[in-house]
């Protein structure tokens, strides 16, 4: 079970993994062992997601979701398949957490009376200072 936030958890059986040869590090095994991991998660068909969560993920992660409705996360940073698999799952949880995060709505506020008065006072002070610096014009 992968915990995304306090409302959403994804069971492991909803994730599919594909393995292929990595272009990254691997030493002597680089041309023999399939260490690259592609994690696939079907966003459209997942029973773990509510309708609102599904829409939010589809909108925010649209560049990572294919026409088939599957979210793809690729990892090939490590030399072993297990390490790449763990990295892909970690990145998947991070992506979904960011996509499902709700920003607090901003409540409009107004400056207080004292703040407005202080602003006007500072503007007048600055204006007076600049006026005093200027050279008086003689007629």
Q: What does the model show?
A:
The protein is α+β, with helices and mostly antiparallel strands and 139 residues long. 37% of the residues lie in helices and 17% in strands. It contains three helices and five strands, in the order E-E-E-E-H-E-H-H. Strands 3-4-5 form a three-stranded antiparallel sheet, covered by helices on one side. A two-stranded antiparallel ribbon has the order 1-2. The longest helix is centred in the last third of the chain and has 21 residues, at 113-133. The radius of gyration is 28 Å and the shape is elongated. The mean pLDDT is 80.
Q: Which characteristics define this entry?
A:
17% strand, alpha+beta, three-stranded antiparallel β-sheet, two-stranded antiparallel ribbon, 139 residues, 3 helices, 37% helix
Structural class: alpha+beta
| Mean pLDDT rating | 80
| Strand ordering within the main sheet | 3-4-5
**Percentage of residues in DSSP E strands:** 15-25%
Principal-axis shape equals elongated
What is the number of helical segments per DSSP (H or I, 4+ residues)? Answer: 3
Largest β-sheet summary: 3 strands, antiparallel
* CA-atom Rg in angstroms: 28 Å
What oligomeric assembly is this protein in? single chain
Amino- and carboxy-terminal Cα gap: 86 Å
What is the tally of beta strands? Answer: 5
Order of helical and strand elements: EEEEHEHH
Helix content: 25-40%
Taking pLDDT < 50 over at least 5 consecutive residues as the criterion, the unreliable ranges are: none
Strand-helix topology:
Elements: E1 2-3, E2 9-10, E3 15-20, E4 36-42, H1 51-60, E5 70-75, H2 81-100, H3 113-133
Antiparallel strand pairs: 1-2, 3-4, 4-5
